[in-house]
Amino acid sequence: MDLKGRGALITGGSKGLGAALAEELARAGARVAIVARGAEELRRVAARIRAAGFEAHAVPGDVGDKRAAHAIAGAAAALVGPIDVLVHGASTLGPTPLRLLFDTECEDLEAVLQTNLVGPFRLTKIVAGAMAIRGSGLEVHVSSDAAVAAYPRWGAYSVSKAALDHLNRLWAAELSSTGVRFLSVDPGEMDTEMHAAAMPEADRGALARPEQVARRLARLVADAGRIESGTRLAVAEP
Ligand SMILES: NC(=O)c1ccc[n+]([C@@H]2O[C@H](COP(=O)([O-])OP(=O)(O)OC[C@H]3O[C@@H](n4cnc5c(N)ncnc54)[C@H](OP(=O)(O)O)[C@@H]3O)[C@@H](O)[C@H]2O)c1
Which of 35, 147, 165, 216 could pair covalently with 235 via S-S, beta carbons 3.0-4.6 A apart? Predict the structure, then answer.
């Protein structure tokens, strides 16, 4: 997909992978809207991208909040035009330090699912219909290896990412004849705030930079037409 002039909505765009991907897609010519709860940081990222000569807009909002979903999608479309690319990057670990399932409150599991699963589901329900009418569109669900492996203490997050992967497959199956495509992408371990919160003892020097991963992810977005819709793939370097 030639990203020039395309509308892209990236949730989790104020930090880490989302912020780096916003810059990459904007550099490729996309008109980018980024979403996160922290408005100040979000606006700083958008301003930095604009200062580099590209287009980016801040749309503050909480993807886990049902009442915010239409406002997020509406504001983004008003700023960048029809959404051609939707990247579901916003995510939460739940309470840290990460805890065993027996020590996980039901409310914490629900909150993680709201942000990591129901939020993307809701946004897709709002955005994918218009994509289908236009006969094209791409959605990327940002997953994790925790969706596949059963790491002790990663319970709520793992469950949400496993469900997100399957949501990806189901959307792809149900919308297979519409031209709207879905990918689920495991970005691999990156040196971000989320990683530091989950694994404070990790050697940060051994982790990928989100900017490196964002470059690979941006190439994948551009080449998505060649990948079967519903596929789950990893972008980490071998
Ligand atoms: N880092 C890793 O090693 C790693 C590994 C595998 C997968 N991933 C996945 O990669 C994606 C990016 O992770 P990251 O490490 O770059 O995270 P990060 O640096 O912690 O950034 C998370 C972003 O999501 C936003 N966010 C969180 N909750 C939100 C909500 N309810 N509504 C809107 N925005 C929200 C945050 O901003 P606010 O807090 O201001 O809202 C921030 O912009 C996530 O889906 C994560 O699960 C990361």
Answer: 216
